Amino acid sequence: MNPIAWTIENIWPYAKALIEVFILWLVYYRVLLFFEGTRAFQVLRGITYLIIALFLSQYLGFEVLNWLLRNFFSIWIIVIVIIFQHELRTGLARLGQQHLFSVSLGEMEMQSLLEEIADAVYKLAKQRNGCLIALERETKLNPYVESGVSLDAKISSPLLQSLFANVSPLHDGGVIVRGERIVASSCLFPLSENPSVDKTVGTRHRAALGLSEQTDAVVILVSEQTGGVALAFQGRFIIVNNAEHFGHLLKDLIAPQKAKKKI
Q: Which of the residues 48, 138, 160, 226 could staple to 120 if both were Cys, CB 3.0 to 4.6 A apart?
């Protein structure tokens, strides 16, 4: 027999099984990473233990336990849909999204935009004026735009500072930025439903996290109590060390390809 044909006939079935196991594990691992920090993660970890128990019961010949576990897994899809409805809705909304800023800006325009935002954010932080700024990417934020006051003004540091000044009637809620324009202010963002979020976290933090859970927006947050600056993205807070670090993070998130080219 031809050596190649012999190799394919005898080794390929085992190699195929290993490839399938690897692909399935990789997909499951990515699902775990996606749900990390949510109640879904804890449930998925519990299901993993049950799967291991199922295999062990089959191997050891525990017929009653094996029957119970097999019947449980026959309805596990319905259980997951019920328990994970919020997470599944969020995940499906992200499918097909590209990680690019929704409005294409040139290098100079992008740099100018980042400088104006950074200047406003750190001046507000110094004054302990809280702020909430959402940068729209692929997912349109029209429902949240409609909840606020329409502006359609070119973004600038003085304008952002005036919007979030305590004496401003528009300082409550969030600002939404589309491209290099502020499209609305005083917008209402959804509060995070993540049970793992610290109970001491305020409404502004929960709103930033909530919007980042339901859309692909980058949300900038300044704490009124501490003056700290943070970014919320994909349901997680990102630590910001200083103004320079803030600028790099922001550029990486809203225009990753351009940031890589520069590096």
A: 160
Q: Which of 65, 94, 123 is the last residue of a domain?
A: 94
The domain in which residue 33 lies consists of 3-94
pLDDT reported for residue 218: 93
Per run of 10 residues, the mean pLDDT along the chain (length 263 residues) is 66 79 80 61 73 84 83 72 65 50 64 90 92 89 90 92 90 90 93 76 88 91 89 89 87 62 38
Asked if 120 contacts 160 with a C-beta cutoff of 8 angstroms, the reply is yes
> Would you list the DSSP string of 44-84?
HHHHHHHHHHHHHHHHHT-HHHHHHHHHHHTSHHHHHHHHT
**pLDDT value at residue 116:** 92
Whether residue 100 lies inside any domain: the answer is no
Q: Do 126 and 52 belong to one domain?
A: no
Structure confidence at residue 176 (pLDDT): 95
One domain for residues 127 and 242 = yes
Calculate the CA dihedral of residues 149, 151, 154, 158 and round it to 10 degrees.
Answer: -60
Tell me, yes or no, whether 114 and 234 share the same domain: yes
The DSSP output letter for 192 is P
Residue 149: its pLDDT value, please? Answer: 93
* pLDDT at residue number 257: 47
- Cα(47)–Cα(51) distance, integer angstroms: 6
How far from chain centre, in Å, is Cα 33?
11
Q: CB–CB of 187/211 below 8 Å?
A: no
CA nearest neighbour of 121 among 130, 109, 134: 130
Residues 131, 76 share a domain: no
